[in-house]
Each structure stands twice: as structure tokens, then as C-alpha cells.
Amino acid sequence: MPVLPLPLVFTLFLCVMFAQSVFRGEGAGWLRTLLLICAVQNGLLALVHYYGFVDFRFVLPITATVIPAFVWVSFQSTAVRVFSKRDVLHLFAPASVAMAAVVHPNLIDALVPLIFAAYGVALLLSLREGEDRLHRVGLQHGSTPLIIWRGIGAILIVSAVSDVAIAADHIFNNANLTPWIITFVGALSVLALGALAMAKPIAVVQEPHEVFIAPEEQLEDAVLMSRLNALVTESDLFLNPDLTLSMLSRKLAVPAKRLSSAINRETGQNVSRYINAFRIEHAATLLKAGHNVTQAMFDSGFNTKSNFNREFLRVKNCTPRDWRAGNQL
Question: In 3-state terms, what secondary structure has residue 137?
């Protein structure tokens, strides 16, 4: 059995991170709360498994399932949309475990990993759309927020696997390996969740607000957009499927944040939608000329059919197939 109670060390570390975020005013409120929840969970793990507070054992699975539910709500509320009353329904996850603890405790071994796995898979599936899914995340961070959220989804699945391993260890190995699994998988996973929650690319949420723009800055925006439009159209730069904000900013020799702000203020769109509008017009021309949908999609700079179909519907108010059928030369 490990002598050093790493879960307690991780708890102290997470508490320090939480205190720093509060003191500095950093991080979105939801993610900061997630950090605190992770600290509490690691503290309970240390108390139960290393300091003999066995009376808290029944609380562990309930508090554990608060984490994946709160991860999902935090993701939605910081990266996708504002908090909705329907998000309260996710309290059903820990409530169902609490009910199982009273009615049929044996169900907990299956219910806890199922909840972790379900939320992890749901998060990864939600991120299939890529960066376009993260409506409230600053474009200046590039693909980093997407990578972080995918990492959090993967950690939830790893936690589910560790819960299954603990249950199996109790059945087949008299729980000899459980302390090690808890220390090096369970506690580390909770630590990783907390640490990632404070990563700046996802902790800084873009809130919609009215901003006064000086006339000279409006003029600068117009000039910059004129240069950008010329760059994108004259060189067919939008056809590059790997085009990024940083590439555009380098070609125009302006900071990425300055460019994304100009695009947002002048068009009311983010960089992805601005570029995709050019791609959709190009695809529409190809479809009109008789190209099939898949060919038009790839030849216009799109990598995925779901993104292509969604953007085509947004710009043209119809599907690519309907457009092709009604506009062929």
C-alpha cells in the first residue's frame, strides 16, 4: 500500500490553484468551481483510503459522479452557450447514485463508470465539429481549446476504466491493487481535470458586450478587411483546408487578435464562418457546373461532410444536394 497519500497532496495543489484563480480574478466561474470539486474529491479519497474515515466511504461515489456532470455543464456554459435552466437536470447523475446507495448498493459499481464513460463519450462526440463548436472561446487560441476539451473527455473515459478496474480488483484480487489504482489513476485523473480546467485557452470566456469603437479604429478595420478580402480571393487562399487565423495574420503582418477583432466587428462573424462563406460560394459554383457533392466539398477546402453540410445550409438555406438539383447548368 502506498505510504505517501498522493490524493491529499493533489488536494492541496488544487486548493492553491483555486485560491490563485480567485485572488487574480482568473478563470470562468464554472471552471473554477470544477477545480474546487476536484479538490474536494481528492481530499475525500485521502480521508477514506489513507486516514481511516470509513464513514465517508458511501459519499465517494456520489461526489465522484458530480464531476462528469459538472464537466459537461461547464463545457456548455463556457465554450458553447450561456447556462440554461435545463442544465440542472444533470443533477440526476449523482442523485441516481445516491438512490442506488440506498436501494441497491451493488448497482453503484456499474453505475459510476457508466456515468463517467457516458459523459466522456458525449463530450468527444460533441467536439466532432471541431473548433466551430466552441462558440464562446477566443479564436486567438487556435486549436488549443479543442485539444484541451478532448483531453478532458478522454480523462473521463480513463476514470471510468479505473472504476471498472477497482471493481474487478475487489472481486478477483481481494482489493490488493485498489490503493494503487486510486492513487495513480483515480487521483491523477481528478488532478488533471482540475489543472486543465484552469488552462487559459478555455478558462477565458468571450462574453458578448457592446464596445465603443473609435472612428479611426473603424477606418483601420475597413482597410484591414479590404486587404484580407483581396488576399483571400485573389490567391484562392480559402481553398486551403489547413488555413488558420495565424496563417492569415502572418500574411497580412498584423496580430491574430487584431485580425479576428476586425473580422468580428466588420462582418459579425468569427474567422471560420468568414472563410467558410467563400468556400460555400466556390462549392455552389462547382455543384452548379455538375460536380458531385463530395468532390465539391473537398475541392472547396472542407475536410468533413458534417461541417460542409451545416455551413452550406447556413449560407444557402438548403442542402448541397438540393442546390445541385435546382441549379445545374
Answer: strand
